[in-house]
Amino acid sequence: MALTRNFICRTQSRSPTKVSTPIHWPISSSKSHCSVSPTSSTSWDQLSSPSGDEVKEDFISYWEDVRFIAISGKRKCGKDYVATFLHNEIQERLGQTAAIIHISEPIKRAFAEEYHLELQELMSSSAYKEHFRRHMVRWGEALRRKDTTIFCRKALEYLIQDSPFKPAFVIVADCRRPTDLEYFSSLNKDTPLLHLRILASPVTRGARGWIYNSGIDDAETECALDRTPFDVLVINESQRTLTLSMAVVRRALSDNPPRKMMTI
């Protein structure tokens, strides 16, 4: 089911990257500390997507024939790398269209705009992003407490705006909470969400630049899915283990995917 013209127009007109005037987010006036003010007013309430029962129905119906793949895992385990690898596998081996989204993208877009930061650096795995991570997480949590799926919806809105086509598969590269999995599961009732848990040892993650940081690595954003069931465990220790894992993922993407699979 295609989205109505009115929905697409309203969606595009609300994009934080396309508005003609600055967006005022719920933060205090002191930008040097990146602190959150829970009592401040915000235009995010107006930007929350979508609004109106008819528009919400159109938005949900738009995704009902799309297969969602959720990726979760610790910092520096290689979530983005696996997402890109899987994207290429789907297009080259399965001959299907695919797109990658990040739940963190809406908050990073808004955070970058508010503090005049480099969005592409925040979207990367750079030291630049790590420098702002703690402040950005706290800032985003203040918004999430009002609406647990707001960033999931906004990430899909950005996909509608930015993609020239509707993909057959949507890869969510950074699921962090059970509510993320529940939301994307709810969009396609016929085909179950495929949850891939990416695993890499602390030694391997350390070689990729990971250093344990109290307040980040023991926070909800890193630990909320530690005990949540997954469908396939993807071992991202080497090219060999990743290739073997992706063979299992391809089988899981078949018409009758086996549930609760694990690679070894």
TrEMBL record:
> What are this entry's molecular-function GO terms?
ATP binding; phosphomevalonate kinase activity
Which coarse location class describes where this protein primarily resides? cytoplasm
Any keyword Lipid metabolism?
yes
GO BP terms, alphabetized: cholesterol biosynthetic process; isopentenyl diphosphate biosynthetic process, mevalonate pathway
Provide this UniProt record's keywords sorted from A to Z.
ATP-binding, Cholesterol biosynthesis, Cholesterol metabolism, Cytoplasm, Kinase, Lipid biosynthesis, Lipid metabolism, Nucleotide-binding, Steroid biosynthesis, Steroid metabolism, Sterol biosynthesis, Sterol metabolism, Transferase
Q: Which GO terms describe its cellular component?
A: cytosol
Give the location in the cell. Answer: Cytoplasm, Cytosol
Q: Which range is the signal sequence, renumbered to this chain?
A: none
InterPro entries reported for this sequence: P-loop_NTPase, Pmev_kin_anim
User: What does the record give as EC number?
Assistant: 2.7.4.2
Specify the pathway.
Isoprenoid biosynthesis; isopentenyl diphosphate biosynthesis via mevalonate pathway; isopentenyl diphosphate from (R)-mevalonate: step 2/3
Which Pfam family, any one of them, does this sequence belong to? P-mevalo_kinase
Instruction: Note down the stretches annotated as region Disordered.
Output: 28-51
**What ranges does the record list as Low complexity composition bias?**
28-43
Instruction: Identify this protein by name.
Output: Phosphomevalonate kinase
* Biological source species: Echinococcus granulosus (Hydatid tapeworm)
